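=== RUN LOG ===
request id: a7f3
mode: sequence -> structure
chains: 1
length: 441
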Amino acid sequence: MSVNFKKTMILATALALAVTTASGQSAPQRWDLKSCISYAIANNIQVKKMQLSVTSSQADYNQSKWNLWPSLNAGISQSFSNESDISGTGTTASLTGGYSVKSDVTLYNGNRLKNSILQQQMLVKSNELSVAESQNTIELAVTTAYLQVLYAREAVTIAENTLKSSEAQLDRAKVLFESGYIAESNLAQVQSQYGNDKYSLVTAQNNLNQQILSLKQLLELDITQTVDIYIPDIDDAAVLKVLPAKEQVYNTALSFMPEVANSRLNIDIASKDIELARAGLLPSLSMSASLGTGNSTAASDGFVTQLGNNFYQNAGLTLSIPIFNSRQVKTSIAKAQIASQTAELSKVETEKNLLKEVESAYLDAVSAQSRFQAAVEQKDYAATTYKLVEEQFNLGMKNTVDLLTAKTTYLQAQQEYLQAKYTAILNYKLLDFYQQKPIEL
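=== RESULT ===
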């Protein structure tokens, strides 16, 4: 089954993120597309790591709110001194203690604390959107892998039926050869085709096993777990569903896709960086207060008396006015403004990339449906021709060259039919995804 480069990259990226240890949601007995998607999202290691980033940013957000509160610290100091007395005839040793409590609070710093809180809140949301982006990547990768399994399973069925037909033809060719209707070289051609069909069945089965393994790795199942894939019955009518309007798909995607929301949020985050940088031009006002006392063994008063006599209180305001700082603040403002412009461009780029993806998926869906309709007709014509030639061969009216040519044409038509069928389904499901519809079969 052929897929475009983007879809291949989505699958390759998700496979690179997968590991072989699963945890969390319990595995179902039979895996349909919906259970595959939900299980993969619940157990993907990359998604879990990004969810931890959300938790970390939430902690930063909580800390930014606590930064509004005053700090409170207590201090205890003890020092020992040994010095000569005035007469120089001896030394005096003393033990001195100090005890204090101090509190500081920022009253104003250019709204830096308030803007920091708002920015941290935005960063939490941004990380949540990044988790949603990662989940979308996994969803598309699992959908692609699941359809690859369905395609490979149908290819195996075709190979099995072809081998049965080839075996019957070989038996008939032996009868015709023994009756003198065909030459030994014709019999050898039928025998060779039978061998090729056996090989094709092995190849198709190996491909199915490989596709199941790829899906299993996306689900992050360990080596002991098996995957029983549910095979839905998809008729031709389901493939040829009416496509939605392209503009409608894009507008819907624009309204909910997490990467678009994240690009818009990054502009707001960058604007807060500008405000934080500009705060460096404004004065800051802080207040501090402290209580303290102390004692010394060199004093004649008692310990409690000294603590009372030495008790002091202090409170004050500090105003800091920036005058010259080697142009550091202006440089920070300029860089923040550049980052804001970059965020604006990134938003436009994200929206344009989404438009390209939607237009590509829509064009692929239209093309795939047209290709599928042609493939259905081609398969039907080839099947009718092959059936007639086979009947004539069984009656001795057609030679092996005619039979094998008709058979090859029919097999090619079946493969084209399968490719067109699952390509059309995949592209239609992509359009469902861009319309925020659940991907189901």
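=== NOTES ===
Confidence is low (pLDDT under 50) at residues 1-24.
The chain has eleven helices and four strands.
=== END ===
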